[in-house]
Fold these 2 entries.
Entry 1:
Amino acid sequence: MPPVIEPAERHTLSMLVDNEPGVLARIVGLFSGRGYNIDSLTVSEVSHASHLSRITVVTTGAPPIIEQIKSQLDRLVPVHRVVDLTVVGKAVERELALIKVRGKGELRQEALLIADSFRARTVDTTLESFVFEITGKPEKIDQFVSLLEPLGLVEVSRTGVAAIGRGAEGM
Amino acid sequence: MMREMTGAEMVMQALIDQGVEHMFGYPGGAVLPIYDAMFHQNQVKHILVRHEQGAVHMAEGYARSSGKVGVVLVTSGPGATNAVTGLTDALLDSIPLVCITGQVPTHLIGSDAFQECDTVGITRPCTKHNYLVRDINDLARVMHEAFYVAQNGRPGPVVVDIPKDVQFAKGMYVGPENIQHRTYQPRLKGDPEKIKTAVEMLAKARRPILYTGGGVINSGPEASRLLREFARLSGYPVTSTLMGLGAFPASDRQWLGMLGMHGTYEANMAMHDCDVMVCIGARFDDRITGRLDAFSPDSKKIHIDIDPSSINKNVKVDLPIIGDVKHVLEDMLTVWRGMKAEPDRRALAGWWSQIDKWRARKSLAFTTSDRIIKPQQAVKALYDQVKDKDVYITTEVGQHQMWAAQHFHFEQPNRWMTSGGLGTMGYGLPAAIGVQVAHPDSLVIDIAGEASIQMCLQEMSTALQFDLPVKIFVLNNEYMGMVRQWQDLLHGGRYSHSYSESLPDFVKLAEAYGGVGIRCSNPADLDGAIHEMINVNRPVLFDCLVDKTENVLPMIPSGKPHNEMIMPDHPEALDDAIDEEGKMLV
């Protein structure tokens, strides 16, 4: 009987952790040490008074691996809670990106038009460049970037996904 | 209790308040203040080791044989890095340790100062948790938390890294009372519904098996007692991993012996053919399962474990129960009695008669010779002479370890200390010293190999200094035997660097340390020589010259299922037992 290979799924995990030195290294080390994927990672303090940070990890793996990742994270001492937002229900996921394009004439015009249709904001302008700011789902940003590619794309800086569950309940 | 004291004094006070009686350590620049604070008290006794790896293994042996937390104190830099092997060993075998490491003063951290290393960075993946204490006001709380984390939930090693300026700084000490951990609250009681389902599944089983592991030992002696009670009540067969030996008495008729790669035929066949398996405090390790997709194909699997990450890690189970073994077994017994469960006696009788047929294969059989000592015979001879004594056994890692597991039999938990998960050569001697510290009047024997013993042999000196009369029983076959066995299996018998060249004269070596050396090569002299060893009240290094060609059997070759074991009556099957895929495995 050949082993059943389940297809990989993309999951967004949200964690509340003690905001102490090394906590991020602990989580990142767990992923690399056990061979799990990190597609994106965001971390920031969310409560100064109670020293809590929120970490959002987007990961891919077969369902048993995702379960394993969650229990491995959950047993880390400074981790308060792990929630799989993908399982809990449709979560709001947003990412911010800053994108620099360089060009003159028609290309410049075209870049501005595309930025406008994606509701990106222009946050820096010179005579031969723009920096656009765009917020949205990761796929939307992917698409925006790929359209800018032939128009003089210089560089991209993305925050990674921040996510939160819908509805009245908190994690 | 609140009192002002220095950081170094806080460390000692916290150890005293945690009930620590012994610690194992080695001084150095970054822990001198703690050694000075130690000088001013005599409640905690310090065992000076010869190498920091030895200190950690001693603390492991101490912890595993006593149920207490083992405590280690080492300096910064090389002190900490030398401890890493021991910490990893303790993590894989779930041994509760607190390891205090000195660190360069906070203002020098990151400057590549003398004997500086990133201790918390290096030990993060090999500890259950670790702390760098930068502020004197955190020190007392962190010390108490470290003990809490080490011994609650699935036990493990915890490192507390303390910069030298924090050891000198003054602050308020708080006692262990009222220290509650904010986040780490492991679940002890199993889900009652699942326990009820488990009992129903077990009561209906026709071919049940209890597969037990180190978690039963870690849960405390009461867990072993409850396991015995459940086995007696149900009449079900019991097997165990290497780590769980002693939880169930080896003299019991329901005992099938150890399972896994070098387990007995009856244990592995019963695992393969069972219809309900309950895994109690074990983790479906690769030494146990053999080929995963052929592991116990027709059974319903129940898994009791305190660590949720052990569930479905290697083997998908039908009914996971998260909880401490003791609590879960207690509740299972209550439910079993409450519903007046009655196993299917006829099915069970059939199952036992099948098991007896497997038993009759005598998978641990070996042939003796009157010219040369067989290693199995040496272990058996040792067992026969010490079995009625108050005895503790440790091992190194390799063939001798497997022969010890197969031919030395345990009646009680906490009597068997071996490096199971990490497989650390050099573990046995320091572990034996740690056991002897915890049990000064007991007989403590390290069953060793001539290669492994040389990895931490310097600790002979520690044994002599502290009058710890450990016995080192070396099965000397002049090979790294397990390496040689696998070179036979996989590499055409090309013994690349597995011969123990330039061995020391172990008898002279023992005498050089101030211990006793004994050598034996003649089967006729074996009993007398063992008698001499166990009746000396000093450390003994026993050089037992054994057959150089013996292999450990039976064996599940890597990549094979439980029902394809190589048996001692057909050892030639070893020659082509492993296919290309199996060769990739270890």
Note: Chain A touches chain B at residues 1-3, 18, 21-22, 25-26, 29-30, 33, 64, 67-68, 71-72, 74-80 (CB under 8 Å).
Entry 2:
Amino acid sequence: MSREQNNELHIKNVSKTYPIEKGTLQVLDNINLDIKPGEFVSIVGSSGCGKSTLLKMMIGLENPTEGEIRIGERKVEKPSVDVGMVFQEARLYPWLTIEKNLRFGIQKDVPKEEHEKMIREHIELVGLKGFEKAYPAQFSGGMKQRASIARALIGNPQVLLLDEPFGALDAFTRINMQNEVLRIWELEKRTMVLVTHDIDEAIFLSDRIVILSERPGKIKEIIPVNLPRPRDRSTNLFLEIRKRILTSFLGNSELNIEYYI
Amino acid sequence: MGKNKKVEKTLYNTFLKVLAPVLLVLIWHVASVAGLTNANILPSPTRVVETLIKLISNGKLGKNLLVSAIRVLQGFSVGTLLGIILGVLMGLSKTLNRILNSLVNIFRPIPMIAWIPLLILWLGIGEESKIAVIIIGTLWPVLLNTISGILSVDKKLLEVAQIMEKSRSQILLSVILPSAWPSIITGIRLGIGTAWTCVVAAEMIAAASGIGYMITYARELSQPDVVLVGVFTIGVVGLLIDFIIMRIQKRLLRWKYVQQGK
């Protein structure tokens, strides 16, 4: 339907500083980035480089000190339903069943008759069928995160932000969830922006990978990933991109690729 | 086999629970029979049970209990309502919290009994003064627990609602209040305990009916068996109230008690 409308994400000359005890602390320095509708972009960088802050500004929970962020024509200044977000913690409401958690995510202009169907579809989408009446406390970490993704998607955002969503999961569950996100993205072709420090995760999922420098975060490099999906993590092309990213992080010191396998 | 073990365990636990009270009554009984106690001060358990049956059958216990229960119910419901409303407002508004906080801190440590003479002066020795004592007694625990429940709402959960562009009233009803419920219910549980204590205290000071009055009157007539029946009744009723509140709590907060790892 109207997904084709202009919902390109523009980040223009964005800087962010926080006041601290003596003076200010600059977290982000002059970030410029355009993200096309339907694109999957990852932002990687060491901790404290401001990648989560950038994400928070994209959704309007924080505002840039300088520059602006726009989605299509709208300047992002406060949270809006056209951007959704999944956090590292699932942040489900513990007093609601999964079904009701999802219902809470539905936008208010959606007619009531459609709610049931939407909930059913989204629960199926993330593979939680049969667990509608369960409470979050009964779920494993991976299942909670699935529910959290479903709740973000049911609000039908044009852009979905993922803030280290699998950082707290074990390695197997993480790979599983990456496949799941890829499947959902391919199915819905929604713009997704992922913040992660898992380089493999970024390569596996993204069209482009944005590498941020250490504080203050600047865009160091943007690496396109032109590999067919689903990507095999052990191919040479995959490893080459990985090497490029690591080189970007660690400077020009010679890297022995075998070392990182 | 698992089931048998479970039954055994429950039986064992029940045994442990009743062990101490049964033992106490047994010692009391033996001491009475052996003539170690003065029956005018501490009558035997059989005597107390006889009195209990008498007071039940002539309706005195039931009547007094009912009077006290009605007072508690009135005072407790007003106190709880007041505590929740004031607590929510104070939890939400930093300004109001600052304004009222010093007042709360001054009045809270005052024991309930200390209010009774003043309240009698103001409201007379009728129902009003007793209910007022109960209101004050219920108010504090409910108020303080409501405030702390509202303040302890997870900021991360608020952020989620903000992202979904929920209105302020929706955030209050769907996020803040549900997350404060466990704390509010704890306050209510403490509140009804205090309410029950308050009614007895108020009735002992000035009343012509109620369980507290029954006890004081029996003391004046030197009827230790009636006093004991009254005292035990207070204990049993308190236990019963707590049991009921626990049940309601488990019902309302089912999400807190669900089994892990389904």
Note: The beta strands of chain A are 9-19, 24-35, 40-44, 66-71, 74-75, 83-86, 159-163, 191-196, 208-212, 219-224.
